[in-house]
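Lab notebook, page 48
Experiment: co-folding of the full assembly
Goal: obtain a model of how the components sit together before planning crosslinking
Operator: M.T.
Materials (sequences as entered):
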Amino acid sequence: MPIRAQQPDVSVVTLTIDGQDLSARADETIIEVCRENKIPIPSLCWMDGLSVVGACRLCVVEVDGGPRLQAACATRVREGMSVQTNTDKLQRYRRTLVELLFAERNHVCAVCVSNGHCELQWLAQTCGVDHVRMPYRNTGYNVDSSHEMFRIDHNRCVLCTRCVRVCDEIEGAHTWDVMGRGSGCQVVTDLAKPWGESDSCTSCGKCVQVCPTGALVKQGTSVGEMVKDQQFLSILARRRSSR
Amino acid sequence: MSRTISIEPVTRIEGHARITLQLADTGEVEDAKFHLTQFRGFEKFCEGRPYREMPALTARTCGICPVSHLLASNKACDDLLAVTIPPTAEKLRRIMNLAQLLQSHALSFFHLSSPDLLLGWDSDPKDRNIFGVMRADPQLAKNGIRLRQVGQTIIEILGGKKIHPTWVVPGGVNEALTVDKRDAMLAMLPEALTIAKDTYAFFKTLVPKFRDEARHFGTMQTMFLSLVSPEGALEHYDGFLRLKDADGRIVEDKVPPQDYPRIIGEAVEDFSYMKFPYYKPLGYPGGIYRVGPLARLNNADTCGTPFADVALAEFRTLQEDAGPIASSFHYHYARLVEIIFAIESMQRLLKDPAILDPRVRARARGNKSEGLGVSEAPRGTLMHHYKIDDAGLITWADLIIATGHNNLAMNRSIKEVADAYVDGTDVKEGMLNRVEAVIRCYDPCLSCASHAFGQMPMVIDIQRSDGKVLRQITRD
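Observation: model returned without errors.
Model output:
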């Protein structure tokens, strides 16, 4: 007999986002309400269908005029809540965050297989990053091309951990994980074995499709040819939750 | 007391360079050197990257001729895949290469060199640029800009953008040609051909005025290297290497590009970041040779298109002696012949019904550990040579750039021109402009992303051997 899914909290709350009066289910997060109402709010680590980690902080918003910024992906709505998603302060913070991502690793869009189809590139455009104000670290990271079908270029990884979560939560393989700290932090396959030697990888390619940048790509693609299809994720997640 | 004259930066070339002239006590030129003052390091930082990134990576060496690197690099990748690309893909690549030849030659002739030819070597440097040409002969300037536009637009129609298109990929191209695009390209070419023929006819009237320059602008005895088709015709995309000596004897013929390490070596000098390729059997620096339009026309038996063949026949009469045309001044002439050839060839390729074939890409993965791609860039023979590991990552790369082949010849040429024109006791700006102009004959592409142009400031230091500046001439 299939396991019954937990019933959602259907109580309704009312709140204001950017001066717009809205109603939402009490178990929703601010980012979900924004997406439903087409209120643009940038995000990177958040993805519909995966668990929330609140790591990238790009979706920070101002709540009830308070000084502490809150991640929209990790904050549930409340009755009477007032949210600002696009103040000068938020724009400044988001732009700085995106610049730091560019400065940390080596994102050379012009020669990247994801050029033109990259979420980081799109974020840079929407956040007004016309240049990076801090010095680049220029540290070389390795490229693991040992897998028959896929490749990871750590130079282009933003550590959003989407790959780790989709592999664990949707595919159930848990091939991907994270090792190291600070600038030495990176995603790894099977306790840092080369991907091509991984025993747990099912070669399903979900990690490649959810990766927001050109870090995880298909072999055999040339510049600008890596277009990702993320439609499958919300469909799979919905079907699993309804079982 | 010996002195040094330094011309820095050299203007109206692509990139950054310096020329130094070492003068003897008597004012005669003792030595002349052409220095490449910038360092790029592409061969090193490409190591560790996936080979499929190489076309886009190496194309960044140049903003003027990215298509040349794109093609040579993709040919090296085709070699790594061990595939023969579909015939239509090859034709499409050829069209893009010819469009690039057209726009690059137009840039060299009209924008960079015509100010010297039209306004004179000794004219005011403030006017000696494309804007001066616009004032003196507006139609000529317009024609130059239009020709370049046609070339760039064809590249854009095929590749999606004018500079650094990514349409050419290992195994072919990533999108077939449509009827609309073909027709749009064909519609531009008759006007371009008319402009090219008119400019050629005009330049023929100028040639007799520059007899003296033709005698002194790099007439040294060198060999000529280029690709030729299997039948010996003018070739820019594929074929075999041919090397002709100064007397017109074919020294090497039907050399498969893969055999280039047998005939070409690279030397290094401490005064320049540019390497000095030479013909190995004759050693360094005796194995001096030239590449580019002059070499290609000297080496080719025929062009293979009607108007270009007439122009080639006229080109061969530029010199009374038998044998290859020796003067580097005639690079300009050769460039105009090649412009005509490029337009005629594009028309021929686009009118071929097979050009619309949807099969334009061979798919494979790295099947060899070493790949070589050779094509003719506007400035000469371009070689990309890669080695990859089992995972397809680059372990070694060697790029022999067209301008590099001409390095020895450019150094000899400035010495020759300086000997003929520079009087160390009374240095005039026009004298130094001739020294720069001989470099412009080769149309060197030095950095190539930046484009030195027109009224760049130039400082000429006349120094004593201990480095003390005796006199400084400044051009704003």
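Interpretation: The longest strand of chain B covers residues 380-388.
Next step: discuss with group before ordering constructs.
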